[in-house]
Write a structure and sequence with these properties.
- This protein is of the alpha+beta class.
- The protein folds into 5 domains: 61 residues, Helix Hairpins (Orthogonal Bundle); 231 residues, DNA ligase/mRNA capping enzyme (D-amino Acid Aminotransferase, Chain A, domain 1, 2-Layer Sandwich), CATH 3.30.470.30; 83 residues, Beta Barrel (OB fold (Dihydrolipoamide Acetyltransferase, E2P)); 146 residues, DNA polymerase, domain 1 (Orthogonal Bundle), CATH 1.10.150; 68 residues, BRCT domain (Rossmann fold), CATH 3.40.50.
- Strand 11 and strand 12 form a beta hairpin.
- The chain is elongated.
- The N and C termini lie far apart (96 Å).
- 34% of the residues are buried.
Length: 671
């Protein structure tokens, strides 16, 4: 049955619209319609092709999902060879290249076209009458592999060129790559699924493009940027490289947004340093800059040597990946107690810096890599990022290697190491005692929500620990004004004020004291729940998991953290020393559901004259009440001080009971 012309025209129109919007989105990064409208167009085309399969063509946007798997890739002989580039490893070699160019072309100042050298896989796309008919890898430069089905799945590759005066034949050369965001997303998904992860984006791009099943390639976040041409028939290309790239862009090809035309080698060197500084902010990896003589006639005059053109050069960045020997593994303790394995390496230069250490992250990563002491490993360093081991060169593994074993005790303080189920990080349970965590634990102890020691800032804590005046929080209360006065930027008055603040903070609440100990995952709310249910620090120290897990806000993980903390004898000793130093709190009565304020919701607003709002909040919480920041129909009481504003008006509107300070004191039993 003949297909109505109306349907054929509609199908063609939809393809043109979708192709246009694909190019606006992927080539120009300037979408004109929302995704929902684009999806409607695509679904409409899919519906027509489903009803009339004979209308499906290779350049239809619906065909990007991937065809049937291939048994193997066929060979493609490049009509025009895909040549490599000579490299300049430093400025001197770049200057030498420029000198040789000037000697041939006879110019005092040569115009160059510059663009980033993408770290991906070279590709050649053949368009006939604007339709993509073949895609081939570079291969050895003369013969590549036919990867047409896979390349059709890349959204930034137009299946049909747009614009006027499209050549009968146009061979577009470019680079297929994987953006960093997509690379990290792919590796995370592979890791979660227990599949091998890729060492770097280039390997990921190459591996994806050479999948025999195009559906796999379709699921990979591949993109392409065009940087040149091969065979052209039926049209006259522009006379400069920069105009040629603009010409390709007019046809819908994506080109580098970083490209630039430069006058002379000095501008080239400036561009190199500018892009080197910007390198870490780019959404994809680059390994250098490509400089090409811009004038095509001068390119032809310069010609070729061996397998590379004389009119182009790649000035490479220092290598970001190198091989070296892993000689030992040490375990470092971070300021929060996290244990990190660090590879000690045979020193090697990477990204312009001599590296002798690299992170191995955690035991899961060691097992994933399968790395051993004595292995040859590949080290990666990008910009200021800490070097890391990315893979093992198994073919170079010696006969004698050592399996890496994770310690069971902290390498700094000897405390037990703990690892929560489902988490990769192993932590030291030394807490207050561990030297590696010392500064952090003291800073937390002194913080406003903990013991609130006025005047004891981070820099002063650093000084006290560095000068060996304080090794744990209990030592703070042994300090003298004379010791403090001898410190940098600490006069007699500041020292006296701190001694006074230390004395003042001794009067606290049990909840604040528990919170100040810095037990992992024991925050303010959990500290209050522990106080209300256990009523003393002794009961907390001796509590078992069953007792702890019976408390609201305390699950198995938190219970294990608490038990592990107090299982370390030195932590319990420091707590005892703090109590001996004079820290005390009011006796706590066990909270019961029958208490008058249990479960009641309060809001505090305005300025209080008889107490601080913080004191009022803590008193309410100690009695089992909840304190909210906003008035709602669930609010039971509003404590209103002076200059109470909109919250007071809303409370009256909702019929919430409004308390004065005197009312509040009577209700809570404050004196």
């Amino acid at each position: 049955m003949k297909i109505p012309q109306k349907i054929i025209d509609c199908c063609q129109q939809l393809r043109q619209q979708i192709n246009y919007h694909n190019i606006q989105y992927y080539t120009y990064d300037a979408p004109e319609i929302p995704d929902s409208e684009y999806d409607k167009l695509l679904r409409e085309l899919q519906g027509i092709e489903s009803s009339h399969p004979e209308l499906i063509s290779v350049d239809s946007p619906t065909q990007r999902v991937g065809a049937a798997p291939l048994k193997s890739f066929s060979e493609v002989v490049h009509e025009m060879p895909m040549l490599s580039l000579a490299n300049a490893m430093n400025e001197e070699e770049m200057v030498d290249f420029d000198r040789k160019v000037k000697d041939v072309v006879g110019d005092e100042l040569v115009e160059y076209a510059a663009e980033p050298k993408l770290d991906g896989l070279a590709i050649s796309l053949r368009y006939e009458n604007g339709v993509l008919v073949r895609a081939a890898t570079r291969g050895d430069g003369a013969v590549g592999e036919d990867v047409t089905q896979n390349v059709r799945t890349i959204n930034s590759v137009p299946l049909h060129l747009i614009g006027d005066d499209i050549p009968e034949v146009l061979e577009v050369r470019g680079e297929v790559f994987m953006p960093l965001q997509g690379f990290h997303r792919l590796n995370k998904a592979n890791q979660d699924a227990g599949i091998k992860v890729f060492a770097n984006p280039r390997n990921a791009a190459a591996g994806s493009l050479r999948q025999l099943d195009p559906k796999i390639a379709a699921d990979r976040p591949l993109e392409m940027i065009s940087y040149g041409m091969g065979v052209v028939a039926g049209a006259q290309p522009p006379s400069t490289y920069s105009e040629t790239i603009n010409w390709l862009q007019d046809f819908g090809m994506r080109v580098s947004p970083e490209r630039k035309v430069l006058s002379g080698v000095d501008e080239c060197i400036k561009y190199y340093h500018m892009l080197a500084d910007k390198r870490e902010q780019l959404p994809y990896e680059i390994d250098g800059i490509v400089f090409k003589v811009n004038d095509v006639n001068k390119q032809q005059k310069l010609g070729f040597v061996s397998r590379a053109p004389r009119w182009a050069i790649a000035q490479k960045f220092p290598a970001q990946e190198v091989m070296t020997e892993l000689q030992a593994v040490e375990f470092q303790v971070g300021r929060t107690g996290a244990i990190t394995p660090v590879a000690r390496l045979k020193p090697v230069e990477v990204a312009g810096v001599v590296v002798s250490n690299a992170t191995l992250h955690n035991m899961d990563e060691i097992e994933r890599l399968g790395v051993r002491v004595g292995d040859t490993v590949i080290i990666r360093r990008a910009g200021d990022v800490i070097p890391k081991v990315v893979s093992v060169v198994l073919s170079l593994r010696p006969k004698k290697t050592s399996v890496i074993k994770f310690p069971v005790h902290c390498p700094v303080c000897g405390s037990d190491l703990i690892q929560q189920e489902g988490q990769a990080i192993v932590r030291c349970s030394g807490g207050l005692f561990c030297q590696a965590q010392r500064k952090e634990s003291i800073k937390h102890f002194a913080s406003r929500k903990a013991m609130n020691i006025d005047g004891l800032g981070d820099k002063l804590v650093d000084q006290l620990v560095d000068e060996k005046l304080v090794s744990d929080p209990s030592d703070l209360f042994k300090l003298t004004s004379e010791q403090l006065s001898s410190l940098e930027r600490m006069g007699k008055k500041s020292a006296d004020n701190l001694i006074e603040a230390l004395d003042k903070c001794k009067e606290t609440s049990l909840a604040k004291f528990i919170y100040s100990l810095g037990i992992r995952e024991v925050g303010e709310a959990t500290s209050r729940a522990l106080m209300q249910n256990l009523c003393s620090i002794e009961n907390l120290i001796n509590a078992d998991s069953e007792t702890l897990e019976a408390i609201a806000d305390v699950g198995p993980v938190v219970a294990e953290n608490i038990i592990s903390f107090f299982r370390q004898k030195h932590n319990s000793e420091i707590v005892a020393n703090l109590v001996k130093a004079g820290i005390h709190w009011p006796a706590v009565q066990k909270q019961s559901d029958a208490d008058e304020l249990a479960g009641q919701t309060f809001v505090i607003t305005g300025t209080l004259s008889l107490m601080s709002r913080t004191d009022a909040k803590e008193k309410l919480q100690s009695l089992g009440a909840k304190v909210s920041g906003s008035v709602s129909s669930k609010t039971d009481f509003l404590l209103a001080g002076e200059k109470a504003g909109s919250k007071l008006e809303k409370a009256r509107t909702l019929g919430v009971t409004v308390l004065t300070e005197d009312d509040f004191i009577k209700l809570t039993g404050l004196s």
